[in-house]
């Protein structure tokens, strides 16, 4: 079984189980797939860049995966049968970045993404992949939490970008830590929570806001993380959250939220844009431009992540089990059977943070 989508909408289909495996391939049995805004954008028809593989009239969904290795080809060296792996989303084209394994920074758009554009995804029981795109999960005690590796690798890359660009001024505090700095995160979805966790783990004072509390779940998670959570009212941002910002991370894609964030940046402040937008606008003023210049502000757009970011993502997830007990578990609010995946893709239930599909027992 697999999930297919052509234009808008999705349906369950039979997908043949692969029978032949070539020398450099691995045969993977899907254990879990996660669902995010990208999937919902694809099946609602809103995500314009979604497309099936060349020559196919449908796309098998799923880019957040966790799988068990069933079999390996003759020349596969680093992965064995029984290993648990996270399959990478983006596969390279021919540009310079792609040729050095940095397809996340592709220069010409000639890449494909499993379950998103030009390549079938992981919402099916079995699939073939290449060794080099299968990231091994060494900490098996992560269990289903390892399905968070794929979204987390985006956060690791963004944090890496933040650290890189803020070398233009010193962000560390007197004692070398970041505990005199404040990070404000817009949007309390899975990505927003993972951003809150990474900044918190480096000592930042973290503020998180969302339009709602997801049935009290964001307050509860924030309490465990020792961060400040507020519900934003209407389009207004929590007033005390938007002054003198060191770093503002947007996961909402909302022009008005981003505009207010830019207005609130402090000296040497940094805006990290992660959320893609479904429209709207914001009036950029001359005063704001002057203030961004005078403050040495930095704006970063960031997407996807490299294989190293997947590996680091797994390291963070493992260490956070001890550092922030129970929080990763809190992110996965719902688990469904594959038979329910169409409704899971179509509708977000109240209080949902991350919804996953369980394909097989681990
Ligand atoms: C994925 C990224 C991908 C992006 C495309 C995200 O959901 O995590 O790997 O590049 O979608 O917009
Ligand atoms: Zn995703």
Would you give an account of this structure?
By secondary structure, the protein is of the alpha/beta class. The protein folds into two domains: 2-148 and 331-358, Medium-chain alcohol dehydrogenases, catalytic domain (Quinone Oxidoreductase, Chain A, domain 1); 170-295, 3-Layer(aba) Sandwich (Rossmann fold), CATH 3.40.50. The protein is 27% helix and 25% strand. The protein has ten helices and 19 strands. The strands form four sheets. Strands 3, 5, 6, 10, 11, 18 and 19 form a seven-stranded mixed beta sheet that branches. A six-stranded parallel beta sheet has the order 14-13-12-15-16-17, sandwiched between helices. α3 crosses α8 (307-323). The longest helix has 17 residues, at 149-165. The relative contact order is 0.16. The mean pLDDT is 95. Bound molecules: beta-D-glucopyranose and zinc ion. Beta-D-glucopyranose is lined by residues 36, 38, 63, 89-90, 113, 116, 150, 154, 303-304.
Tell me the layout of helices and strands.
Blueprint: E1 2-5, E2 11-13, E3 25-35, H1 37-43, E4 59-60, E5 64-72, E6 84-87, E7 90-91, H2 96-99, E8 112-114, E9 118-119, E10 126-130, E11 134-136, H3 149-165, E12 182-186, H4 190-201, E13 205-210, H5 217-225, E14 228-231, E15 245-250, H6 255-264, E16 265-273, H7 286-294, E17 298-301, H8 307-323, H9 327-331, E18 332-336, H10 341-346, E19 354-358
Parallel strand pairs: 8-9, 12-13, 12-15, 13-14, 15-16, 16-17, 18-19
Antiparallel strand pairs: 1-2, 1-4, 3-5, 3-10, 3-19, 5-6, 6-11, 7-8
The protein binds beta-D-glucopyranose and zinc ion.
